[in-house]
Design a protein that fits this description.
This protein has 18 helices and 6 strands. The relative contact order is 0.07. It has 2 domains: about 170 residues, GAF domain (Beta-Lactamase, 2-Layer Sandwich); about 240 residues, Hypothetical protein af1432 (Orthogonal Bundle). The N and C termini lie far apart (about 100 Å). Strand 1 and strand 2 form a beta hairpin. It is elongated. It binds fe (ii) ion (FE2) (2 copies).
Length: about 425
């Protein structure tokens, strides 16, 4: 072997290229390993690849085995694309597992120009690589289009293959995570419907207050993580009612003091039951949040008599949604309380019992959304035209219209649903 081999300019260039490649790989790994939400992950991977390979576009096509299709949800600049999994170059790569570096797409017989035709895009050159999972199965295809300043190189091929290995395992993790999340969410929904079914007086309550809470959450800009905790906590907030005696829960006449005290135990039951569920770390606060929905800002609530900011923020949202649903729902012994009266009552208790910020947010809710929640399990399907009219207004607009008597069309348009005038029930007081 030669001693002290000379480092040539070529060696140095090669060395720098290898170094750059590793640096890029490291940054891609770092960036994609944090994301487990599948749509965001795919978007992120496509951006990373586009930058790493210095090309104009990157798509990830995933194999849908059941349908025998390849699909891409978030290709740059387009919506979901789907096609039979043997078609086009992506289809060829998905079945052969080859890396394909094509210098002139239109000269290749496998190229399917339909997508270009549909989108008005022009593909010149392309690099395709299969995505394989750890078992070696092909789960998708990377397709990068139009290298800037020339064709894709052998270095690009190596880099894309390496990124494909990292991406495939992260995509599989994300798919698994999504599946588990869906299973868990359907389990929570089922629990919520069992409690709603047990309590006919407040039928649909858990579903409705979840929708109100989610609307308030959106209007105060909660992030996705907080919205998820809010959703699960709302669905399960009254779950403890499962431990309340049926005769008391469904009693039509007034409750005795003792019976009322028994009902007031339900948040404690909610807490102790939910604490037995093995929530993931991001949902660890659900038992506390769900069980604090009857706490009041001035400490007059239950079960702990927490005050002000000691009450979790999301519980304060649920509390507003809870009282709003109670007052705006029909019971067998009374109709819905008029909306203006509900907000007069809420304003009186804003700051002392309920958080004013969330009452104010609720008032910014659009009326079409409100009607859909109010009517969700009723027979009267809201008319599309009515909804399109109502979507231009919020609860605030409606309260103004009621007060000033100026916009009577808005008031009657809404009350048609709120008072259920369209039913024309015989003997109705309305
Ligand atoms: Fe409750
Ligand atoms: Fe409730």
């Amino acid at each position: 072997m030669e001693k002290n081999p000379k480092i040539t300019a070529n060696d140095l260039e090669e060395h720098i290229r290898e170094h750059d490649k590793l640096r890029l790989l490291l940054s891609v790994t770092r960036n994609i390993s944090r994301e487990l939400e599948i749509d965001r992950l795919l978007m992120l991977i496509m951006d990373e690849v586009k930058n790493a390979l210095n090309c104009d576009r990157c798509s990830v096509f995933l194999v849908d085995r059941e349908k025998g299709e390849l699909w891409s949800k978030v290709a740059h600049g387009e919506k979901e694309i789907r096609f039979p999994s043997h078609l086009g170059i992506a289809g060829y790569v998905a079945s052969s597992g080859e890396i394909l570096n094509i210098k002139d797409a239109y000269a290749d017989y496998r190229f399917n120009p339909d997508i270009d035709r549909k989108t008005g895009y022009k593909t010149f050159n392309m690099l395709n690589a299969p995505l394989r999972n750890q078992k070696g199965e092909i789960i998708g295809v990377f397709q990068t289009l139009n290298k800037k300043g020339g064709a894709f190189t052998v270095d690009d091929e190596e880099l894309l293959s390496a990124i494909a290995v990292l991406s495939a395992s992260q995509i599989e993790n994300a798919q698994l995570y999504e599946e588990q999340r869906k299973t868990f969410d359907s389990f929570v929904e089922t629990l919520a419907s069992t409690i709603d079914a047990r309590d006919p007086l407040t039928s649909g309550h858990s579903q409705r207050i979840t929708m109100y809470a989610e609307e308030i959450g959106k209007l105060v800009d909660l992030d996705d993580q907080e919205q998820r905790v809010l959703r699960i906590s709302s669905l399960l907030h009254d779950y403890g009612k499962i431990a309340i005696r049926e005769s008391i829960l469904t009693k039509a006449s007034e409750l005795t003091q003792q019976e009322y005290e028994h009902i007031k135990e339900h948040p404690n039951f909610t807490k102790s039951i939910l604490e037995r569920i093995n929530f993931s770390r991001d949902l660890a606060d659900v038992p506390l949040i769900a069980s604090s929905h009857h706490e009041k800002l001035d400490g007059s609530g239950y079960p702990k008599g927490l005050k002000g900011d000691d009450i979790p923020k999301l519980s304060r949202i649920i509390a507003v949604a809870d009282i709003f649903d109670a007052l705006s729902s029909r019971r067998h012994y009374r109709d819905r309380m008029p909306l203006a009266d509900i907000f007069a009552l809420l304003h009186k208790e804003a700051g002392s019992k309920y958080d004013a910020v969330f009452i104010e947010a609720l008032q910014r809710m659009r009326l079409d959304k409100l009607v859909l929640i109010l009517e969700q399990d009723d027979i009267g399907q809201p008319d599309q035209q009515n909804l399109q009219y109502l979507e231009k207004f919020t609860i605030n607009d409606l309260l103004d219209a009621i007060k000033t008597h100026v916009d009577s069309e808005l008031v009657t348009g809404f009350e048609k649903y709120y008072l259920r005038n369209y039913l024309e029930r015989p003997g109705s007081k309305l």
